Amino acid sequence: MSDNEIGYYQHGDVDEEHTSDGEGIDTGYNDVGANSDDDEEEDEEDDEEEARKVAEGFIVSDDEEEEEDSDGSQKVAVRRRKRKKIEDYDEELDEEDLDLLEENTGLKLSRREPKLKRLKRGRQNEPQIKETSVEKFFSDEEEGGYAQAEEEQLPDDTYPSQYRQRPIYDDMNDFIADEDEEAEDEQEDGYIREAPSRGRASKEMMGYLPEGFSEDVLADMFDIFGDGTDYDWALYDEEREEYNEQPEPKLADVFEPSELKDKMLTEEDDEVRLRDIPERMQIRYAGTQKNFEVVPSDEDVEAEAAWVFRELSYFKNITAPSDSLYDTVKSVVGFIVREYLEVPFISDHRRDYITEIDPTTGITTELLTKDDLWKIYDLDFKYQSFVNRKTTLRELIFKCNINDEYITSLLDKAESVEDVNDIFDYVNFKYSSNITALQKQAKGVKRPSSKSLFEQGLKNKVADLLPRFGISASQYGSNYLENARHYFPEDDLTNPEEEAEKYKGTTFSDANRVLEVSRYVIAGEIGHDPQVRKAMRRDWDTMAVVNVKPTTTGFPIIDDFHPLRPYKFLKNKPISSFTNGEFLQLLKGEADRLIEMSIEIPNESKWFDQIVEYYLSDGYSDAVQKWNEQRRGIIKESLDRYLRPIMQKHIREKLRIDAQETVCRASYLALMDKVNVGPFRGRDASQYKNGIPRVVTVSSGNGDFKDPVVAVCLNHRGKIVGNIEVSSLRDEKGWKQMVDFVTASKPNVVGVAGYSAQAHVVLKNMQRLVSEVNSTLDSTASPIDLVAVDDEASRLYKNSKRALEEFEDYPEVTRYCISLARRLQCPLLEYTGLGRDLMAIRFHKLQDFVPNDMRQMHLERALINVVNDMGVDINAASSNPYIASTLPYVCGLGPRKAQAILQKIEAKGELETRSELVTRGMTPAITFMNCASYLRIRGVDDADILDNTRIHPQEYDLARKMAGDALEIDEDDMDDYETKVTIVRRVVKEYPKKLNDLILDDYATVLREQYRAPKRQILEHIKLELQGPYHDRRNKYTRPTLDETFTMVTGETTDTLRQGFIVPVKIQTLRGKMANCVLDCGLEGVIYVDNASDSRVMNVSEVLRQGSTINAKVLHIDKEKFIVELSSKASETKPDSDIPLRRSPFDKYYSHEDEALAIKEQQAKRKKSVRVQRTINHPLFRPFNYLEAEDFLRNRQRGDLVIRPSSRGSDHIAITWKVDDDMFQHIDVLEIRKDSSVFASSKYKIGEQEFDDLDQLIVTYVEAIAAKAEELINHPKYRSGGTTALKTHLNALTMANPKMSAYGFCLSERPGYFELGFKLNAKSPPASWPVKVLPDGYRLRDTAYPLVSDLINGFKRIQANKAQQRRVQHSHGPVAHGHPHPHPHAYPHRHSYRPR
């Protein structure tokens, strides 16, 4: 396998030469070259493609275009020859062949038709045309023109076949090209023409000529004067011919739209590729009104910067932002919206604008971090949405001819999307008639024609009463928004009722109705006023609280382990306290109808009194007080009808967005922690080749007993240099093979992982094995290290399409190990290669509540940050898909642009300089500006070393000057390119420390005056790159802690397994003083005799049984040895005793008082269970529920019963009878009446059995069953005490006589059933089968037996038959498919039985 097959994204071999003082280390990926024959192969492909199109008549061949420059006698008619070959080929195909070709190629192939061929149009200076042709040329007929008419006149025997209609060609004719061919082909009519050919005289023509003319003479005449067919093209209908021409098939005609979208081959994808704007910016603005052709003005940038600065200050909780921060934000906004620069570029190459240097101390302060830049990047998009909405609203106002200064001023002051939405609602509310007129004009959706109460009020006398209520809605909004009373209502000495009498009319004839309508109208105006909404939104943003309570359905469902348990009862939880995304859980619970959530203002009455004050009068007269009551009613109605629902919706949406961003932010940071890490570094890291370790990874997959152990070795280039598969490490042979493999591989580190917790077995074995190998190494050799590897990416990779393409010959576990090794060499590449599968990794417990697109965008930012910090070897990426997976994350690129660049490199060959990205047409200017410094040129002879640094090409001159100054070389001596390259190379390789002697501050001052831009940080950036090109910025690898290793290997965390938990364990072996067991997760456990029972026992076998499953308490977890110490004491394993440990902590605002009250209400409802109380005329009837019936029968004899109402409805009754002590059976009885009358006779039904009356039912069913149960209870084989007592009894019998079989009966936990328990011998486990009691007997395994003796005999026959079957199977060997024994779940009983 070549290096190119497993390329690694490394800082390069050349970096070893460039590295100085430990910087510029290699991170592990080899470069590869493109094929040198790419250009020739591409030319040949182009020629073949072009020839095909010529043959199909779509384009003109290059040979014709070259005819102008060649002598007429030497011209070659290549085009006609190719066409003739195609025609000859077509002649050999019948219709079925052509149909088959069309079906498979998607192309429309031409058929031979007996019609005349279109010929080449003659030149305008040769006007001779046949008269008949002229007549038809100007004819309006569409079909059946001259050609068709002439064809009809020809006798059938004139042309024996369709090919005889062709002109007769000379053998040499195809080798002579027409001198006018190129000129004619340049015409734009698109016709397919054929050059005039040298004709041969036919016998008929020779008969008309005078004697002495030979065929050669006639042929010469044809060459000079033509054969009279030059203008035959005029015989055809031009439109008809153009209509029949078949266009070249498009991709959309061949592929499904979904396929084109997946492969990024749609027209929209092509637009993204070609437009010189970073791809991510284009995708972000897709579907918006963003116009990239319009450059924002200074005023636009200033406005956006102010908006972004305000939002950023709020986000970062900066109470007093500085002017320097504003200037920084303004610069960044300009870079994004004007220059279309992405975050990595700004962070690296515009650092002078985002940092601040203290002039006194010289300390550099970072004003904006990279995360802040991403926030500004997001705020830019939100601002564009805000501006678009604002523009749309202005256009609507203009179209509706609305001239309102109030609206105009509000729009000018709008600061958020919410403000614009408020104004839009206000316009719709106040100017609905204008909008309706516009819709009618545009024939849009009509508004409802019925008039609302608001419109009726405004078009009535009531409208004149409205000013008497006081200030207007806008004046109230101004008071409320500014928290000051600028406007006061005028006091009216007339009572509201008396005043309303003056405005009665036909529509509203009552004074109270007039006041009601007036309040409604004013409440609507206040509820839609933008200033009122803005002021109220301010209050709700700071004061709103959330209350939660469970629904009737959710109360029992939300138990102690439910995710909503911490929030089951919330009271007055401030919205500012939602900081961990938990609001998404509440929304999900609300959607599932498990909880009810309300958003309110605490102590609302006090708050209401505050906001209503801005609308009331200060007067004290009775009339003023009555008017104030009317005004209070208006504010309350406005709040209830309009404002409160809007505010609740606003808070809900605000909390939802904040929670989603919180989850995305946490996911982003989690991924950053995983990918922003360098390769594994052990104690001998300085000896690693290019800084990359040689790795061996080991895994046994699922870790089952029969699964082999697989190991893979990767060298520092990521190439597989060895792999092995051993059956087991438990036997000596497998152990020796693995020791030899590890020894021969000479790894720096061994990594271990697995699909399950059984990986801890491999880990412990490898710890011993590596220790053994280290003991055999020379004293000079570095010991081999061993670590556990996080395999979340490897799990997704091992069966992915990419893995199968890379390593199709390797099995799954081997591919898994390869990915593990790569993870230790470069974690970044393992995540970039996942693509969309990255979404399958769990970075946050609430990530499923966030839209995938939103989450993917934030996760990609982590990859973008690290990929651009490391750079991408563009030539290696062109031939290695593994490295190419990083290219879409390069600044300015994306999957489409990256794909286009790789295709061009594949076609044109590798790049030798960064500038070739532009000169060879691979990237336009803006894209190049963004990506240039992150695309590395490596492994090219005599290449400019700057092309392998983070220095941008626009700063190359500065870098070269700094290198020259460091070596004290005059600028005059650096007059040519080669000299500059050589000097820079010398500085990087030999004299990097001399750069420290440069006084960069003075140089920066000069550059600032020269370029009118700060350059101090750029100079520092250049200096660091020259001292260590592409030095590794990632965090250094740190060994996983003990807890992290435990989680990697077992998958268990403190939330799933910790001290005090009660867990089910299966007893594996009993060893006197201890018992070995295994947990559900696969971990090994141990129970010592002191922890086996509350009573004193000498041997664990006294209380524990091998193969049984019990509950045990976790006492201690040895995470180093992967062993859990357990206790099986009854006092420590009480059910639900670990709930306080497992239950998530209650929220700070959890209301235990509300929970206690709800529990009491539930208990009260249970006691008052809703059912129809019935009175049945029977002495055994009691008005009990099931609990009361059991209490009534508890102290009575077996077989006693009561008849009671049923909770299933009025047509049901229930019969409860006592089976045994604390055992009762409830029988549902369906009552069937002949009619609805209460006096109608009834029949009763249990299952399929019907009874004429209750007495018959009791005697023939209930008492019969009770009698059969009593018969079984009185049998000698019956044991009281349930299944536990019966098993103890059977164990005692078989232990006394190991070869004896034992059986017995006991009551089942299921009423109406008994358990037939049995034990075949001392070694077999106890088993049981259910026995159902019937009125006439017993049912065992679908067979009814009338007597207990019959039941026992039937049981014995079944066991005898099974024993016979086992003997037969044993004599014939194992069963071919499946187990020789019955499946443990084959029988419908509680305890499965599997004989041995």
Q: State the share of residues found in helices, binned by percent.
A: 40-55%
Low-pLDDT runs of 5+ residues are 1-93, 100-201, 239-243, 1373-1396
Average of per-residue pLDDT values: 78
Give the overall shape: globular
Q: Radius of gyration, rounded?
A: 45 Å
Cross-sheet strand order for the largest sheet: 8-7-6-9-10
Biggest sheet details: 5 strands, mixed
Instruction: Report the strand count.
Output: 27
Structural class label: alpha+beta
Strand content: 5-15%
Separation, N- and C-terminal Cα atoms: 52 Å
Individual helix count: 56
What labels would you give this structure?
single chain; 1396 residues; alpha+beta; five-stranded mixed beta sheet; globular; disordered C terminus
Please describe the topology of this protein.
Elements: H1 14-18, H2 38-56, H3 62-65, H4 78-91, H5 95-105, H6 131-137, H7 146-153, H8 181-185, H9 203-208, H10 215-225, H11 238-244, H12 251-254, H13 257-262, H14 267-274, H15 279-284, H16 298-315, H17 323-337, H18 343-349, H19 351-354, E1 355-357, E2 364-366, H20 370-399, H21 405-413, H22 417-430, H23 432-441, H24 453-458, H25 462-465, H26 473-482, H27 496-501, H28 511-528, H29 530-543, E3 545-550, H30 554-557, E4 570-574, H31 583-591, E5 595-600, H32 604-612, H33 622-675, E6 695-699, E7 709-714, E8 720-726, H34 732-745, E9 749-752, H35 759-775, E10 785-788, H36 792-797, H37 801-806, H38 812-825, H39 827-832, H40 852-870, E11 872-873, H41 874-879, H42 881-884, H43 895-908, H44 916-919, H45 925-931, E12 935-936, H46 956-966, H47 977-989, H48 1000-1011, H49 1016-1027, H50 1042-1050, E13 1062-1071, E14 1074-1079, E15 1084-1088, E16 1109-1118, E17 1123-1127, H51 1139-1142, H52 1152-1167, H53 1186-1193, E18 1201-1205, E19 1212-1220, E20 1223-1233, E21 1242-1246, E22 1249-1251, H54 1254-1273, H55 1282-1296, E23 1302-1307, E24 1313-1319, E25 1327-1334, ...
Helix pairs in contact: 2-4, 16-17, 16-20, 17-20, 18-20, 20-22, 26-28, 26-29, 28-33, 29-33, 33-40, 34-35, 46-47, 46-49
